[in-house]
Every structure is written in C-alpha cells, then in structure tokens.
Amino acid sequence: MNRLRWAVADGWTVTQRDLLHWVRQPAPVVVGLLMPIMMVLMFGFLFGGAISVPGGGDYREFLLPGMFAMTVAFGVEGTMLAVTTDASRGITDRFRSMPMAPSAVVVGRSGADMLNSMLALLVMVACGLLVGWRWHGSAGAALTAFVLLLLLRFALLWVGIYLGLVFANPGAVMAVQILVWPIGFLSNVFVAPETMPGWLGTIASWNPLSSTVTATRELFGNPGWGGGSWIAQHAMLMAVLWPLVILAVFFPLSVRAFRRMSR
C-alpha cells in the first residue's frame, strides 16, 4: 500500500508538470481546441445543407456527437508528440534516474491528457450549444455518453503513449497524423456507411469510432442512422468493448516499451 501511495503521488507530480507546461505554453492547447471548432463550422454550415439525415432531423445535431468522438480520437498524435519530445530531449532518462515510481511517467502523461480531453469536450459542448445542438435524453443518458467518449479517449491515449515510446522521434508524429485523419473520416461521423461502396461501408461500420458515435447519438437523443448490420445494432455494447480491447493490447505494450527503455 505504501508503494501504491507513492506511485500515485509520483504520477500526480508528473501530471502537474505537464499541466504547468500547458499554462506556460498555451499555444498548442489553443490550436488543438480550435481545430475541431473549425471543423464543426465547416461541415455544419458549408456542407451540412447538402447532406440529409435519414428519417429527418437537423444535420448539426447529427454531426456534433461525431465531432465529440473525433476530438478525442485526434488527441492520439498530441500524446505521441509529448512522449517523443520528452524522450528525444533526455527528460525521460532523467525521470528514470530519480527515486520515483517507474509507472509515474506514463501514468502522469495519461492523467494530463485525460484532463486536456475533458477541457476539449467542454469547449466542444459549448460550441455545439452555440450552433444549435441540444441533447434530448435524460441527464443520466447524456452523462453516460460523455463517459463513453472519455473511455475511448483513455484507450486511445495508450496507443499514443506506445507509439511515442517506440518511435522516439518527433518527426514520426507526421506519419501518425497521416493515418489518423483517414481512420477518423472512415466512419459514420459525417455520412452513413450505407452510402459507401459495400466493402468500404463494412470497414467504416467496424471502425471503433463508429460504435462510440452511434451509441452517443442514441444516448443524446440526436438523429442518426443505425444500419442493419450486427455491429450497428449492438453499438452500445461495442462502444464499451472496443476501448477495453484497445486498452488490453496497448497498455501492456506501453509498459513493456517503457521497461525496455530502462535497459
């Protein structure tokens, strides 16, 4: 119990260090918050008039739950960049030389990123309310939707931590960004998978992002299309199962990668 207490204390210290960096250098955080807002305005007002929602409904109400999920998904490269920057500057090596819990570096990073994700979701909710988005379900259902979004973010940040530890070079983040954008767009965030070619629609339906988006639309009471596939009919289950699978794979990989850096 004493070791656990010190591990939590060391992890919180590293989290505070990352938060202080954001306070002193707020530009990357501000840019990261502005990007999804620009996408909401672009798709909601420029392209939204040309897209009809099956069964009727306002396109911006359909769009916002998807943009919430895109916001948490696009944080992967931010996590990776922070980890690779610390590794390339020797900061990670300095942490390893200190009398601190070995888990504090990755736990502190995850804690800081989760706080950043909560802030990003608050900003997106405020933006959504300004452009006309509303939730029509109960407060408990809305809270469940936000929990599912943060669960997906928690799972994906370990993907970023693992990639940052393996590719200890800030230049590798560009390659990840090239991959994250197509994966994010290849989902049901903007259009129905049924409108895509058959094989492409199947890939989009099985995208973990699509399950979270479908589940949150249902919980918020926003318009959406469920589809007739098994994955679409069990979106609520898969919105929990997908993050757990991702976490089960990348958490131990991250721990192993960090231990290998210590050798």
Automatic annotation (TrEMBL):
Keywords: Antibiotic resistance, Cell membrane, Membrane, Transmembrane, Transmembrane helix, Transport. Residues 27-261 form the ABC transmembrane type-2 domain. It holds the Pfam family ABC2_membrane. GO terms for biological process: response to antibiotic. The chain crosses the membrane at residues 27-50, 62-84, 118-135, 141-165, 172-191, 230-253. It is a multi-pass membrane protein. One of its GO terms (molecular function) is ABC-type transporter activity. It is found in: Cell membrane; Membrane. Its main location: membrane. It comes from the Bacteria. Belongs to the ABC-2 integral membrane protein family. This is Transport permease protein. It comes from Kutzneria albida DSM 43870.
